[in-house]
Specification:
mainly alpha
Length: 121
């Protein structure tokens, strides 16, 4: 059987990456505003894992849209992804995706997502 290939536009990959970068910058700006609200001026990559985990949990539970309404459930997952990308980009050894220290973050996210889905039904 002969392999099949499809035509692709590699420019779309670059555009997708730009959108990801914009999302990461936007989410990190929001998280940094939260840190300032908490009177914490440290860079995210300099916060120890246990403290960062607690801060992210508190952020996920309290963050809302500009108009005060709740975010979409998938937005919370996106914020975690943005934070993880930021840490990787800034040469942190922490990984929200893989480190056991961040298990609480995933529990909080899933719990809040579930609660948000119930209110949308």
């Amino acid at each position: 059987m002969k392999r099949q290939f499809r035509d692709v536009n590699i420019d779309n990959i670059e555009k997708e990456n730009m959108n990801t970068k914009k999302k990461t910058v936007s989410d990190m700006k929001l998280f940094n505003q939260f840190l300032l609200y908490k009177q914490d001026s440290r860079n995210v990559e300099n916060i120890p894992a246990h403290e960062l985990s607690n801060l992210i949990c508190e952020f996920l539970l309290g963050v809302t849209k500009k108009d005060g309404s709740e975010n979409e459930p998938t937005t919370l997952r996106g914020i975690i992804g943005s934070t993880d990308r930021y840490l990787i980009h800034n040469n942190s050894k922490l990984s929200l995706m893989n480190d056991k220290e961040f298990a609480k973050v995933w529990e909080v996210m899933k719990s809040k997502q579930k609660a948000l889905k119930k209110t949308r039904l």
